[in-house]
Design goal:
Layout lengths: L1 E3 L7 H11 L7 E5 L7 H4 L3 E4 L5 H7 L5 E4 L10 H18 L4 E7 L12 H13 L4 E7 L1 E2 L7 H7 L1 E4 L9 E2 L1 H13 L6 E5 L8 H12 L4 E4 L2 H10 L4 H14 L19 H14 L1
Parallel strand pairs: 1-2, 1-4, 2-3, 4-5, 5-6, 6-10, 7-9, 8-11
Helix pairs in contact: 1-7, 4-5, 6-11, 8-11, 9-10
Length: 298
């Protein structure tokens, strides 16, 4: 039995599709935890066991982890959390107890690159995510944290600006080349770990796209794919802080997000190197052609 949290999220949803294709030939059962089962497509609800509720609720995870061999774990994020630790390790506390109570053998979580860098202890949301990894590992469960750089898919939040103004924004230096990754490649890495549970102990599994890119590199690719000019505009951390607050994020979340983006410009994602084994197949141009361009033209 594999339990999937956030099955309607950008990674969890893709993971669920992969597992639905793979598990019939492997004899694996699937269970999902979801606040609103109505958000699951009918074809999915017919093939998985559904536990309704929050995976931060002790009663919900107690039901969901009964008989579970493996769990895909992602905290949903709470913009109004009193602290970023509460949003990560605090939210995970009930699940950690349930892992032990039900003898869950393997857990795969979504985390970040950054461990071991000089900025890891002042990287806001990433620092909290790494602390959550340590907390899960301390339970004794076999654990793998998918250590990711920035998601290509975050650009989908700026579809309107790209379409109407030919601009996307960020806080990193325009010519700094950093690793990126497509969420579908993270989901594929998670599926591999959940289906082949021969691994033991705890550790990180980095997931990279085939090449590092700067914001200006990305602008050139987007322009070429869309057939019209698109440029990158760097914003200040103060501008980012104001925009996050205007969207309703609480003080702790705003500070955590700003600290993360500051650390990203100071080498946060330099903690691991790309290898054939940790490189996903999706390049940025391919992602733009298959995901971004249809969203812009919709």
């Amino acid at each position: 039995m594999i339990v999937i949290t956030t099955p309607t999220g950008q990674i969890g949803g893709r993971l669920l599709d992969i597992l639905l294709d793979e598990t019939p030939t492997r004899g694996e059962e699937l269970r999902v935890i979801v606040r609103d089962p109505g958000k699951l497509p009918e074809r999915v609800r017919a093939r998985v066991d559904v536990v309704a509720g929050s995976h931060g609720d002790p009663d919900v995870v107690d039901r969901a982890f009964t008989g579970a061999d493996a769990v895909f774990w992602v905290p949903p994020g709470d913009p109004q959390a009193p602290s970023i630790d509460a949003a990560y390790s605090g939210f995970t506390r009930a699940a950690a107890k349930a892992f032990a109570a039900h003898g869950v053998g393997h857990v795969v979580g979504v985390s970040s690159l950054g461990r071991g860098t000089a900025v890891a202890d002042r990287a806001g949301l990433v620092t909290a995510s790494l602390a959550m990894d340590d907390f899960i590992a301390s339970t004794g469960v076999a654990y793998r944290a998918l250590a990711n750089p920035s998601f290509m898919d975050n650009l989908l939040r700026q579809v309107v600006s790209i379409r109407d103004n030919g601009i996307f924004t960020g806080t990193t230096e325009a010519d700094r080349a950093d690793p990126i990754v497509a969420t579908r490649d993270i989901a594929a890495a998670a599926a591999g770990l959940l289906l082949d549970r021969s691994w033991t102990g705890t550790g990180e599994v980095p997931v990279f796209a085939p090449a590092d890119l700067s914001a200006n590199d990305m602008a050139r690719v987007i322009s070429d794919v869309l057939g019209r000019p698109v440029r990158y505009e760097r914003q200040s951390l103060d501008d980012l802080r104001a925009r996050q607050a205007a969207r309703g994020a609480g003080e702790a979340t705003v500070r955590g997000y700003v600290d993360m983006m500051r650390a990203a410009d100071e080498g946060l994602y330099d903690s691991a190197r790309r290898t054939p084994g940790n490189t996903g197949p999706t390049g940025f141009r391919e992602w733009c052609e298959q995901v971004l361009a249809p969203a812009v033209r919709a």
